[in-house]
Records
---
Amino acid sequence: MKPLSRKQPAGYISSVVVLTLGLTVLLLMLATYRSASRAQTVQAEVTLRGDYDTKEEAVIRAIVPLAANAAMKSMMNGSDANSSSRSPLSWQKIFRQAILSSNAEESVDSVTLQSVGLGAAIIGNPGDSTTWASSTFRAYDSYDSYAMPGIDKDFGTDFPPSLNIESATIKNLDRTYPIISSKKQYGALAAGRVGADTDDYPHFNLIPYPEIRFGYAEAGEMFVAKRNWWAFKMNLGDQQKTLTQVERRDREFILSIYEVPSQLAISAEAFAVIGAYEDGNPWQNANIEGGVFASRASIQSGISLERVSGRNGLEIDEDVTIGGNALVGDTSSTGLISSDFSGSAGTTPFTPGVREKYEVTHGDFMPVSLSSESGRAAFIPINRGEEFFDRFAGSDASQTISPTSWDDYTVGARQCAMSIDITDVASSTDPTPTELTFRYQKGGVTESLVLDLNQGAAAGLPSGFIRCCAEHETVEFPYPVDVAYGINGEYYYQYGVSGSVTFENDRFGDPAYGTLKEGYYRPSFAHEIAYLGTSQPCITLYPERFKELLANLGADGPEVNNSISINANYKENAFIKKPSIPCTDSDYGVILRECSDLSSFTRGFSVVTNLRLYIADDFNQVPITPPAGSGLEEPFYPPCSMFAPEKRYGAENDPYALKISGQLGSLAGGAVAADQSVHLLDMKAASSTAMEHDKVEVNLAPIRHPAALPPITMMNWLVVIEERRPEAYEGTAVSP
């Protein structure tokens, strides 16, 4: 049989198969390469976005202390002296410094590369580049600055309520610098969005505590504060988007500086031992409501607290209950255990993971917290220590960016409406006061009255008389006063008169025939010089007399003149020495008498002195009607505060027992060693002997409304950055 001949070349079918398979493999390779390339691009973009997010988080955390420091320095003397002093405090420089300090321009710094022998390495991270504040940060809308201040405009419910400010200069400054000032107040823009009437409480109001882990107050609850805020946008990769081809939306943030007057049951800028006396015995008759704060605290066994917050450290002893959670001693370690806080031996509320477990279990933040636990938040006590008591410690600052100077803001004695200063003494060896200067407010102006304790306003007049008119003139005295009529050492007197008094011969007789005479009056002064024992000169203060005294002087009433500082003017008189702290028996003292009924001080009363303070009588025992709309319960007493380096209860005699209600605090400052700890319930009597523990009853509670805030308080700042998500508008965003 003849075989069939082939029409095509041998191997043709094999070539087609090979070619087909080859093309198929090539297409698969191309598809795989394309997929891998896309995956690499996606992964690179994801990595780059993550890199940007990490860097932005570091930048945000760096802004918190930088903004707070700039706000402080803007209030200090010389901050507005020249461009060199102003420039570092601007928002532009704050943001630029935050970028640098957070190392946001490079993944690995050159020092680290050198340390591992990679100094010549080339970093291929496209996210590493020089970043400028102008291309990274921006404000909102038509604002051409770096941050939009929350002032003088209603930004709607998407933003916190704005503060009112009248000065156009300050408005412009607040766009360039973080301005903190008493001139920024709550007004019509915040009406209905804060918890109390803005007409009655413009300086501090009721606002929600931010949702942060640092628990000075409970997250979301109303507390007394003022919120200064600035909004800005940030996009760290914006200027590199042409190179990276990565489009990122702007992240929006609100930076808030809350001005928080001390309002907790215990507020101690010191190392405070809470729960035990200095002799080691546990507290007796002590009822504490609400939270406590201390820069550093040692919480002793057996005490129960609702909330504890600290700044530099908390030591919690065994058998302590905090927020209803019982802590018990762990015999196998130095730690503490609790079924609610940890659930395992040897752990504490600060052990990693314990806080997170508590939050998941309870749906709330742990009632034990340190300000260092909140990366986007910082709590800063504004503490001048001993200078807080001393009106002469500060200075009249000039060239400040903020209209409120740092000394006026932080020295309590400089904030008082009234002052009594010892301005002259007998000699360099005799410290007996011979001259006092009394300052008070009258129609918004500070008036001064110099009282020569050796002689009166004119020759022959006793000390304390004040000239009021010439002959034939009539003066109205709303309260009883002593009056004198005459000239050149010849005077006739009438005592305890009130109403209209015409100074003429028909009423007094003629003490100096043929000479034009003058009228004088002597009010019932609210102070006098007295001696404690036989040698210690003291200023005795009578707060109940101020209403009458101020009326006789034609001054503003106790609702304005509601605070007083008492100091010795050692700066302007070389014979007057600066009072010692701790106080000594050779220093002057201040004695409080006639202080039981302070009902005339409807807005409260405060005393600040750098002298030892003796409380000789019952203090603030007459209730008044609570302010309308405050919701405060009766009995309500005028809110009062007393600041002194040392307090003694009693004067000539020691009291049998002592009962204290309100709040306790300390300005001891940097005391951190165990032998420098502060024991707030260790009270001393006039004789400097310790009060017996069972004779002291203490009932402490927080301030819950601005109506209960005394005229002078300690101040704190809470600095918080929140990302502007919808929940942030209602104050429910969580800052890590």
---
Amino acid sequence: MATDGATPNPDHGRPNELPEHLERDFDRRALVPRLLVLTILGAAAFLEYGHGHREGHWIVLLIYGLTTIALAMSSRVAAGHSWLPWAATITDAGLAVYVIADHLPRDAHDLLLATDAVSLFPAFLLLIQTGLRLRRDLVAMFTGIVALGWVISFALLVGSASLPAPKSPNALGSRQALAFISFAAAGGFVFYAVHRMRLVWSAILRARWDRMLLSRFLPEGVATEVVRGEEAAEIAERHACLMLIDIRGFSGLARSTPSRQIISDLLSFRRFVHGAVSRHNGIVDKYLGDGVLAVFLDGTPEQQAVRAFEAASEILRPLDTWKSHADAPSGIHVIATVHCGFVLAGVFDDGRRAEFTVLGPAMNALPRMERRSKEANLGVVVSKRFLRLLLPSIRARIHTRPVERRPEDGQLPDILSVRFHETDVDLETGTAP
């Protein structure tokens, strides 16, 4: 299995759908906190909190309410437009600045009024709401606009020399400085929280993206382990059962069959083999022309052998397979070669391509076994080492015949031809009788 080694960038392309995903319909869902702000401010206007004209409060609240509704409707019509979140954030910040400026104490007596809660409530609530977008730039802009508006409003108030009590500026300055520092600290905290949440979400999205890519080549469980960097992804020596499935007679068929039909037959064969291997916890490592290399790494050596054997049995069984259809190609049959041993297995990544595969002497012996099987016109061959791993109950289901060794078979493992007792499939030739 090989994939493009370029790691999906969390800041570009599909793995980073975080901002777009969160922005979609955000302003429609943000109606509740904004309506809550409007309710509180409406009550304050009704009680004549603040120093502006009562009609002015209602005009500002009406404008904000209409803007909120317009933004909520635009979130559906103009979804994905970059201006929408900026417009919403500027609107929220403008309201927060207006409320803060309107509730700044005008004299010493105002310092005793409980208007601070009303004036600061929109700023803090809308700051949190802006943070829910998980956009650092919007959080920074909202905090900056409110802070700048706050400072300008306070400077204009103090510069007007409208405070009659001499100590009022000091008392006012202390209270406003404390409130301002609290808001700035809250803005910094929300900004940091958004930064951390983006890192977490980016990691989650990257893992999902990688798992989606790998799941096309690996079973879901193995793909998850590879993404997590767990044992399946590490290059290590481990025991594996190896199975090579091939179509005998396919080359001759390709010379006399239209290319489109050949491709269709080959893809059908691959889908079927891939399904059978995956159902038995195996991994399709490579497609080799009209052949398929499968690896069984999960479990003990004995469990691997059972799974490889059952997968081979399912592939060679003509029931509910591509060979059972009326329009299936004729004159060909499927052969299998099965071996086992210790191999180096894991994700081999050179920085440009990543490949989950196996290497080692057992892997090198598999094509030699397959070549010897073709020379002897056999259907299924297994190594003696693999046969020893099978349970007695499984060995009772098959008949084995040793394949004669030749002088040139020095590096070839001892192999046996296999035939089932209990099915209609003749595993010695790979065809139905």
---
Amino acid sequence: MKKKNIFFVLLICFINSSCNKEEQTDELQDKDFYSDVTTRASYISGTITGEMNPYVSDGYYTYDLSIPIQKQSVGIRISAVGGEARFKTNYQERFESTWVTQIPAGKNHFPINVLWTKAGSNSTLMVRPEKSTIELTADLRNINVKMKPMPINAPSTFELGDTITLWCNYSINKDTGIKWTYDKNLFAEVSQSASVTQSRFQINLKSKQAFKNSDVGVEVHDFYINSIGAKEYFMARKSNISFPNMGPQIDGYRNIEQYKEYIYSINDSKAHTFYWTGKNIKIVSGQNSSTVTIVPTQPGNASVKVSYKYKNQTDNFTNELPLSVSKTSMQLIGPDVICDNGTFSIKNFPTKATVDWIVGNDLYSQLNQASPAITLNNLGTPGGSSIYTTLTAIVHTKEYTVQFSKPITFNVSGIQENDHDIIYGYLSQSGGECGLNPIPEGAHDFHWSVDCDWEVDMQGYYFTTFSSRNSHEIERVCVTVDFINACGTRTYIYNYFDIGSTNSGTYSTPKNSLSPK
């Protein structure tokens, strides 16, 4: 009986223990479930409003971020795409390119102070979540960030040698960066100055050379203090002014031809004491005057330059005009081959020029050296070969000497019909081959024929082959060839070949040269 009581007591304890474990497990599971619910992120969107056409470096613009009221703070990261922006932080007057901050609980409006540091169309302000269980996103798109105009003030007219003042109005401080740009070949800087109280800065430039067009520019570089207290500069303003046609100008052609004469001048009564020079040119006349005549001597880039004084100033001023020179159109023209005679001339021969004509190594003892055209008779001799040589024309002026050369041939190609021995051949009863030796110089369009009912196998060349269609033996065959010679006339020659009774053939010994007509 006692043992049964002990058993029931143990059974009750076991049951109670099991029940307690199940209750404990249920409590843990419920706790974990509600814990997940409280840490899960929620998503909200906001709206940004503010200036859609801001200017660079025009102070900071305040944009308003509106959101639904939250019971806890919302972590955000603010940045910009397009035009560059810097965001004013909560720490004094410091700016960051990306601002990480929090919107306090219970707030439905949050200010964003933006300093725009670079122009850009279609810029966007963006708000994204940063370490927050409430994920907030907001965008303000199509912001057109511009640079505010800042005109350069300058005199409307000035003369060569004058000192001019250029100035701008802008709110500056002692650390503002100002950078003027100008052509240092045209202007010399006299001085610069700036006034913080008058919000103005200026530069004084002295014109030292005339020009057709020149620009003067300026950049203002302002700054902000970054998160670590250092200055960071950016371009706040940029401006430009153009000055056209200041001072005496050189008048004349820019695109010219080698070896031709051209006139250039300075048409300004205030200019005097001229001295002309240049690159790849020769001065023909007019030195020390306002008008000069030049001859370009080389194709390619060239220039004409003048130094002078202006009004009563002691300084020397210079002007230079760049030139583009094409190759001379002068040309030695005439036939390549002289048969009876040939006429040669210099195309576009300059006035006041002379010419020396030279044929080979003085093959002609006397030539007309005064004329830009000559006629040469054929120097070939009967029984000789054609003469290959060079005709040279040397053109002289006071400013230059230029040489032109041309290969020419005194052609000895008037072959008579009795010059038959230049046809050689190896022929037999079945046919054979024939050719010309020597080949007539400049000859073309060969046409062969043969008698005795033989056939010509090919045409057009200085050689050919024949085929016999005869069933009986022949004793002699006549071969004829005609062609256009180098002088443009057609020549006919022929030769007879004795054909033996066997197929050993007959060979005609070629002549060593051609006989002239």
---
Amino acid sequence: MTVRGRHLQCDVREQCISCTQNTWPPTLSHPKKYYFCESCQKDVLCKHGVSISFNYHEDGTREEIVRCMQCSSILIEKIWPNIPERLVNELLKIGEKT
């Protein structure tokens, strides 16, 4: 993960023609998903820096596959900022009450 001044930085922003999300602050109103390439060790903040394809199944459902533009590896979806384990447990408890 590339963090500059506590902001998450997109590592493939030079490859995108026009990127509106070069960095994300750690004080987001809600966690946002981004993609991480294990082989390139790069973070991608938006869908401008990835290659998206779909697998269609016999039952009519489709599966979105997000790949790295540089190495074509399947990317891992992550959340920024990371939610602390303590908060996750509290959110699960709240969800059980409703």
